[in-house]
């Protein structure tokens, strides 16, 4: 019975089907032997579904999703209550707004889902060629089954995940791009299975191919695939071939530069890796949304208290003799429990409009449209000068716009984030000798930083060995001009000529910039890599003016992994000997090198790291035939073990990469990105053992432009920057200095090389003592340096006291640098800060690589950089752009405006509802607490939807309270909105107080006239309760509209149009309602012609004018005081010389290109300074000129103090 129930759940899609650990696939649905038992499992169809709804479940599913919101569910309960009691107002007053709000949301979601359905239909119905009955037939993509053999042509997208069987190329290879998967635009090579390479036609596959694939069940990892293929041959035993990700064609990838490719489907439909990675991630919740939930709870409690109070007053004070209930025409009531509950529910219904029903919809619209502005910002636009790629800033989500204005901790990667990830070969050491690169020429030097001794025209034995290893130990693909390929097409591979002049136009496509830098450097020195043909790497070496061609067959490539932290290649020379080449990080490679000059490697690696260069150790090992045979068998055995392949391969690699000889060192410099003051070098450490050390390489990754200014500005804005890198400590500290993350005046507290929790505890204690005894934080600044070895104790859950002490130490310092970090440690550091500091701070993580994804997802806000090694970070982030310096624009400008706009929008919604609905409470005292409404049902229905929604929405989209140049040039302004300051309870109290004052003026100002004489109308018109309520609504609407104008600093065309549309729309609605005889909102036509009668009474317009002026007087006074204080501040700063004195402050209209508005801003000066004049010290001054930084901090401190005074006002 249970199994039957599970099958039903699986059939209707409520439960995923249960599969074995591995799946067995028969290629082309044919068994290996005709006599074998043949049973194919049923796997997911190739029908792709990205939509959320169907025609059958849309209504129910959408309603459930919308009612999961507190406000919607609350109004549903109120509407149901109105149907069950003697409601004081028409149930339509609650149902109509609820239906309109939910209907608008449902229409939006339905439209978006229709677009998804259309996109799905286009993909599912695309024609694909599949081999059926020894012929290629066209079938629709959704009809593809696991085991089908599919043929894809050039520039077509793969419809499912395929294992490549053959291609139009003789080598069986094909080129693909995976931009739809990981954002990478470079070509990648996929290799076919060796036994199936010759099978290029439908007939040969149907007649000759009998194969069975055993592979893992589908996973989300795009870069891992393990399986085996057993192929039957007529003349020899079965072939068992190992399958890896190099044989896998992923759905969404596109075939390039290859006429066709043939593959067998292994994963289809929702089980493809692309679809598994498209699952919705749990949404993040912003600080404003969390505070909004508390505000809603507060107003619900206030509503309940008001209702209880009025109910008590009705059955207490109001039943006494002499009150209105003693009138002869009012029948006496008995206080029964049900009657009391009815009255309580009636007052809840009457006061429920205190909760703004349209708030959520307005916020969604404001966020969605506001996020579009993020991509329109031309200051965050970048065009890659090398590729010509145009990169705009992009908001992957609109839910966290305001969170950009609340960041307190920024965690940044280094390589590719702060640096260009554009590697340049700078220096190297070979044995005891050191060399440097000078414009593509190799010079021997006197030590790492010494003078140049002589230029190396030709390479000697050790030098040639060193650069030969650099030219071969990689996975580079060479792109040549097509003319070269045509000229050599007719020649046999061994007869082709490769020249140095031809190699000058080669383009090296590498998965790592390091490898590209090594290959280009070796090419400059005469050791040229010409590419790989049929598994053979071709190398030319210039010797005595002649070029000698060498060929090396690639036997195994031992890919880099985080455990080994190295990369190796096993080659076979033309003479049949075997050669193992390895490169990796110094910290791990030294343990693996048993021969070679290890002392020189240690010495030079430290010196090169101090120069900020990335250091790698180069090593090699000669293999005997017996050693290679054993290694090959061990690797083959590990690769064929599908269940334990990863673990066994790691062990096999470790045993292979031992007893090596260290050849040398390389040094690469990592350039910091513009706008980033800290550098993070995500160096992938390589762990090798017992090799022969040949030397070192040192490459430079250049710092991006604007990095120093950006980090300085972020620090002045109150954001503490943490740099998390995999680099050596010396390299990381040097980059931090050049990026402005550290300054020379900072005292460094180092927690490094700790092997135990007790050692970390002692280092933390010493650091805290040093800070406490070091004097004032203003006179002495500290920074923390911690390595990965120590971090494993500091972020571990079992050492909670270490976590607390480490956080306390970091909070007392100006900057933190974590070096030698793994990707997991980066995420744990972010989690430690996010969850360990109370109140919870807002964290932001920024990175460019796949190793930064976990950190980006862990932070409150994730920012991805369009990196050179892929787009994984950008695809998994909340916001992405091209350069680190754009984070200054994103946080200080966009984040600031997003937060202020949304905060004022939220406060304004509560304010206007308090000003509107509190009149019902006042009127209760005049109506004997009978729950009689002072307003007609129409006003209760449309107040939040049409009367007041549009102006505040446009305010939330276009308001700019400060000009852009001030927000970016005065980072301290960011401090004024930190910690959700605009939504503190006192801010809400201030807005609600103003709302109460406006409600008192509007109600009692009108009531005072009518209490004296209700015959104030002309032509015998008498103001009844609904006419009275209508005049009150006029006054409330005037006050609310004027209030939005008073708090506005930038007047723009959309806002003015919004006010005009609101006014005209209000008049038209009242006109239609006044002549309508349809009893939709009320059982009585109490408002028939009322609008026209009221509009003809002069007293109505006189009351509107007088009451509005009285109510708005405090608002005008407060705004005037704020402007006066600001003007005095600007004058004081001008007199002090911090800003040029421009005399009296004036209103100036300045066109803001990005916003498309005209700014009317009392804060702006006539002679405003350029933004760069206050952007902080340049990178070149960061190391030695700390006074400029202190001056900037002092300058912004006064600004911060002045604006805090304005907030208090």
UniProtKB/TrEMBL annotation:
Polar residues bias: start-end ranges: 1182-1194
Where along the chain is composition biased (Basic and acidic residues)? 1164-1175
* Alphabetized UniProt keyword annotations: ATP-binding, Magnesium, Membrane, Metal-binding, Nucleotide-binding, Translocase, Transmembrane, Transmembrane helix
**Signal peptide range in chain numbering:** none
Q: What is its EC number?
A: 7.6.2.1
Q: Where does Mg(2+) bind?
A: 413, 415, 848, 852
Q: Which segments constitute the P-type ATPase A domain? A: 126-273
The EC class name is: translocase
Q: Where in the cell is it found?
A: Endomembrane system; Membrane
Q: Binding residues for ATP, per the UniProt record?
A: 413-415, 515, 560, 583, 614, 725-727, 820, 826, 851-852
In residue numbers, the region (Disordered) covers 1164-1209
**Which residue range or ranges hold the P-type ATPase C-terminal domain?**
875-1123
Its membrane topology: Multi-pass membrane protein
Q: Where is the P-type ATPase N-terminal domain?
A: 25-92
**GO MF term (any one):** magnesium ion binding
Return the SUPFAM superfamilies for the record: Calcium ATPase, transduction domain A, Calcium ATPase, transmembrane domain M, HAD-like, Metal cation-transporting ATPase, ATP-binding domain N
Task: Mention one GO biological process in which this protein takes part, according to its record.
Answer: phospholipid translocation
Q: What is this protein called?
A: Phospholipid-transporting ATPase
Upper classification of the source organism reads: Eukaryota, Metazoa, Spiralia, Lophotrochozoa, Platyhelminthes
